[in-house]
């Protein structure tokens, strides 16, 4: 007969060991889930980069040749935003500041 934890028949050492086992299981589970989540995020990031490269190198030029200039610009803008995040931020801030100064009275 093995008494359940927290029963009057269970010693303090057994309760402590049971608590330690629960903490260990929780820690292992959390670590496993975190690692899986990080791996999944990295895979999604690589997939976004691949799609952005294809859009920039294949679909944007194709849209231009077909005369779909609005689609071309959107594909280029979105691809640039994903592939060159820092440069995109600098360029968009510079463009925004120029537009603001043009429209100030």
Polypeptide structure, described:
With 105 residues, the protein is an all-alpha fold. It has one domain. Helices cover 83% and strands 0% of the residues. α1 runs antiparallel to α2. The termini are far apart.
The proportion of strand residues reads under 5%
Backbone shape: elongated
**N- and C-termini, Cα separation:** 88 Å
How many DSSP H or I helices? Answer: 3
Range of helix content: over 70%
Q: What would you report as the Rg, rounded to the nearest angstrom?
A: 28 Å
Number of strands: 0
Mean pLDDT: 87
Number of domains: 1
Low-confidence stretches: none
Largest sheet: none
Structural class of the helix and strand makeup? mainly alpha
- Element-by-element helix/strand order: HHH
Region (Disordered): 1-47
Summarize the structure.
The chain has 105 residues and is mainly α.
Task: Describe the SSE topology.
Blueprint: H1 12-65, H2 69-83, H3 85-102
Helix pairs in contact: 1-2, 2-3
